[in-house]
Fibronectin type-III domain-containing protein
Amino acid sequence: MRTALGLLWPAVFALCSASVWIQPPSLLRMEAINTRYTLHWDWPSAHHHACFTVQYMYSHERVWSRSVCEGVCVQSCDLSAQLAFSGSYLLRVRAESAGQRSNWSHALKFTPDEDTLLGQPRGVSLRGGVAVVTVQMAEPVGHDGTPMSHLMKDLTYRLTYWDTHIPAQVHEKDTNLSLLTLHLKPDTEYCMRVCVFSRDYHKTSNYTHTQCIHTHGQRPVLQVTLGVCAGVCVVALLTGIHYLRRKQDSSPHHHIPTILQAYTTSGGSRTLHLTTTYPPSYR
Ligand SMILES: *[C@@H]1O[C@H](CO)[C@@H](O)[C@H](O)[C@H]1NC(C)=O
Ligand SMILES: *[C@@H]1O[C@H](CO)[C@@H](O)[C@H](O)[C@H]1NC(C)=O
Ligand SMILES: *[C@@H]1O[C@H](CO)[C@@H](O)[C@H](O)[C@H]1NC(C)=O
């Protein structure tokens, strides 16, 4: 009896598992920015532990000959290294759980140069000068560090800027050079942000976050001349004071101004009051 049951159990288990088909992954979607392509999918029986395999082929091919992320136990697969920017592909996924394999999912069509999003510039740095702002921009790069302008030959920066006192008046400047000098008003605060776009590929990136900078004031010739004059006057004054001090030190009897000497000679309490205000060494 015991041996009969022991033989029966695996048969029952096999029967049950054969009837419970595991679902294929669904909702395939590609998260694609520049040349970083990550396939994501849903799997309805998420509470079961499952692993997956991805296949892809060029959309004109007939045979699914390429597999990637074989047996991965997460619901995503990075295909950046496999898919060429100018190719067009079909992708599908299969689940494996408790020794069973699901059917293949519906195929997803993915054409990188049409479907991928263009990332925003990697960086923008500003330097303010006398009535100028120098803008240094860094273009977006692909998954392996390749500049996106190598793939999109017409990639162009669009700089948007405005005087902070006149925010409604927005100026735009397009350039394919990464260094740009803007000639602006002196002593004014400007804010700016940058995006990149390609007309050939019908793509525009998001803008970078807004950054602000002050231009320096102009230094006109008159101001400089006045500055130099002021400097000369200060030096002359200091020299004069120094000369007077030295003269006073060498002849202490001549230090009292003539107007006070008049009081000293006239005598009286008023004279006494005035002379006592001098330091003792002068008496
Ligand atoms: C798997 O595919 C077969 C044949 O196309 C189909 O009969 C079956 O219902 C599918 N199973 C599931 C779980 O979708
Ligand atoms: C652009 O900005 C939107 C909204 O913040 C965001 O959802 C999207 O992912 C961004 N695109 C890129 C390519 O970074
Ligand atoms: C950069 O832009 C200028 C004009 O805006 C154009 O004449 C030139 O060919 C462009 N250079 C490249 C390398 O695309």
